[in-house]
Amino acid sequence: MTAEPRETRVPSGSLALGAAHELAVQLARGAGHWWRHSGAGLNRVLTVTYLDTLGFPRLA
């Protein structure tokens, strides 16, 4: 069993979270540098509401 390539994992995961196709592709291109790109598209996908449903505590 081989791992699915990053190029297909990231867009499908982003699309499942409600990202537009263009945004999902941009996130996939920067997947190796997620921290650098987090101020842009990643914050549009991982919203406060989504993190609340996962049970993450709010940091004031």
List the keywords.
65% helix; 60 residues; mainly alpha
Q: Would you kindly provide a written description of the structure presented here, covering whatever features stand out?
A:
The chain has 60 residues and is an all-alpha fold. It has one domain (6-54). The chain is 65% helix and 0% strand. It has four helices and no strands. The chain has helices spanning 6-16, 21-29, 34-45, 48-54. The mean pLDDT is 76.
Count all strands and give the number: 0
Label the structural class: mainly alpha
Contiguous low-pLDDT stretches (5 residues minimum) are none
| Helix fraction bin | 55-70%
Strand content: under 5%
Number of domains: 1
Order of helices and strands: HHHH
DSSP summary: helix tally: 4
Helix/strand layout:
Blueprint: H1 6-16, H2 21-29, H3 34-45, H4 48-54
Describe, in short, the structure shown.
The chain is mainly α. It has helices at residues 6-16, 21-29, 34-45, 48-54. The longest helix has 12 residues, at 34-45.
